[in-house]
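Q: How would the structure tokens look for this protein?
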Amino acid sequence: MCLVSNSAPDFELEGYFKGQFEKYKLSDYKGKWVILLFYPLDFTFVCPTEVLNFSTAAGEFSKLKCQIFGISVDSVFVHKAWVETKREDGGLGGSLNYPLLSDLNKATARNYDILLGNEGVALRGLYLINPDGMIMHSTINSLSVGRSVTEAMRVLKAFQFVSAHDGQVCPADWEEGKDTMTANAEGMKKYLTDH
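A: Here is the predicted structure in token form.
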């Protein structure tokens, strides 16, 4: 089931962030952009590369008024252990720049239609949610290939641009500062002529 262009399913999940356990409710973040970063499990192989790369970029996402949440089916206690474990031992090295949420009962993964039933874990799903709570973009990978922070940032900037510029659309591979086009036949012809 495709969720893009639909309201993001709300949730309230317990999370771990900066030494604290607390509840996070998606609807509390209306008015902000949100990235939900579903991943299979803590203490695995591709997952720490994604989680750490998004952590490194979290400040840039924050400048764009975008909150990141990592979500897996692990408990908050496993999240805490993973964050606090040294990198050379398979952990995240002591800190992370966004909360890790626990979907222990798997309801949120089910609601986002990314629960890999026979494995009991979430696929690598990324959902970009606009300030009105609508899912604008999603990408879902199987377990063996990680996602691109660079592409997530590009897509966020593109959706923020078109949200702020009525009637404009971003062509393939658009990057900040590059030409957009007016969403009509004349705009398309002009763009294709110029490029």
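The mean pLDDT is 97.

Residues 47-63 form the longest helix (17 residues).

Upvote if useful.
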